[in-house]
Amino acid sequence: MDLNDIKTLYGSYLFQNYGREDLCIARGDREFIYDLEGKEYVDFVAGIAVNCLGHGHPALVKAISEQAARMIHISNLYYSREQADLGEALASIVPPPLAVSMFCNSGAEANEAALKLASKHTKRARFVTCKNSFHGRTCAALSATGQPKYQEGFEPLLSKAFDHIPFNDVEALKSSVSKTTAGLLLEVIQGEGGVIPASKEFISTARDLCDDTGALMIVDEVQTGIGRTGKWFGFQNYDVVPDIISLAKGLGGGVPIGAIVSTREIAKTFTPGSHGTTFGGNPLACAAGYATIATIRNEGLVSRAASTGAKWMADIREIGEGSKIIKDVRGMGLIIGIEMGESAKELKKFGFENGLLLNVAGGKTLRLVPPLIVSDGSISRFNDCLRDFLSRQ
After folding, report:
1. What are the CB-based long-range contacts (under 8 Å, 24+) for 157-165?
2. Where in the chain are the domains?
């Protein structure tokens, strides 16, 4: 079966709600993927910041394989060691008072759970989120998302409980969070919005306001968590600790899993029957999550993301020095954005033609979120591609 055969099946049997590259991926190895004909690409997308260990990492493959042979799924009507082990592993990498986890299947589900938890805990109904944010495509998460383009056509389903303020606007933040606010939901780096980091003043003010008003500070770590920013969690770059964090993407190394992590006191708000999930926390996903955290720790990938990302951003700035195309280079660790207007899409296409998988976020920013195991050679390959692209402009 070739690419055209597969595209025919897609056209006949699948919803057409994705814009896809003209590529069918057959297999992966480390930071490389291969198409049906065996052509190699360097994967700087990593399943959109999901495949933090790359493709086919032996430790993750072993954990998944052994767990699949032992048991894939049971319901949350029973205990499983795998879920307990992952909860303990997460507790070992979050700062106190964060301590306990609840598992689900995705980032959107995690944000839905976080919003429900905050509302039930505070007995309040209103939330503050940011413009240009992205929190998921389920109804409450989509309501929280500050990008109207994702909401068009779904307005009757969306909640009116969300006030969207400009990102990094401290005064708007101060005027929006009050004693009627259940929670403040924000990203420390707006990933889908174009890799835009929050200012330290914005995040510290958010923490102070939540302390003063009783609102809960919820940080969406779906894209920035699990070592991506050079810390285990993005918020650790800001010297604050939220009340609730949401996780997904990199947590399972490619196996779907989401989670919220909160304090023991706040977690008591969810009693039996108040929230649940059929598949969340199943043994297979939890075994993958446990292996992912253990491997990142054993291989020193958090500190490597910090050092590698810092050098890479410096290299990109040097390559783009004097360029009229590159407007900004920003990010933390191995989430890097190169703002370059319409040229971002052109660079994405040029990279694809030269064996690099790239991604554009926010319409004008090239987003780099490779596996945390990405080699120096592959980074150099991107840098060479960028130089070549800029020389042609």
Report:
1. 161/125, 161/126, 161/127, 162/126, 162/127, 162/128, 162/129, 163/126, 163/127, 163/128, 163/129, 164/128, 164/129, 164/130, 164/131, 164/133, 165/128, 165/129, 165/130, 165/131
2. 3-57+300-391, 58-298
